[in-house]
Amino acid sequence: SGGVCSMCVIGDISELTGQLDEYGSVSRTCQGCDIGRYATSSDGAVYFCNDCETGRYMNVTGVSACLYCASGTFADETASTTCRACAPGSSTATLGTVICNNCSVGTYQNVSGQTSCVSCNAGFFVPSIGQTACQPCEPGFANDQEEANRCQSCSPGMYSSLHNQTSCSGCDFDTYYTGMGATACTACGGDLETALTFSTMEEECRCPGGA
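== Tyrosine-protein kinase ephrin type A/B receptor-like domain-containing protein ==
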């Protein structure tokens, strides 16, 4: 009479042991698939182990499916036993991803394993993708928008003497500036004065009384 056969449980595969059983047949034993792998079955019979696909992982043996990488992590290789955190300058909100997305211009991320990037505040900017910090507007420049990729030069008749400014200031009375990007306005000199602020030309400097 023959021996009694039993099915391996889902997550295990049938392996030859190399030993003869009591009936003279090579015996088999059920073995769990290694970490980073899972078992597949057909018609209830388990045949072989498969590597976890990219974007998935498994850190225990004897399973029938791999797990999706969580948001903020990724797996770009098959048979992964763990997922890696997105590097600073990138993020992902998607489950089971194989790559993290670089932060877009105007945004940044300085922490690993994040699901989104952070918008730069007004007065700051990021000109390229994948950055870990925002840059402040230089003197002579300003920006009043979030997620900016550049700062605007101060217009003629205006200036900015400090970093990370959201707006430029107008030249005061008795000063002027002709070009763009001023960090200070030019004094008229002597007894000359201007009738208005925001002056853009030296010709606006006149003697008191308009003479």
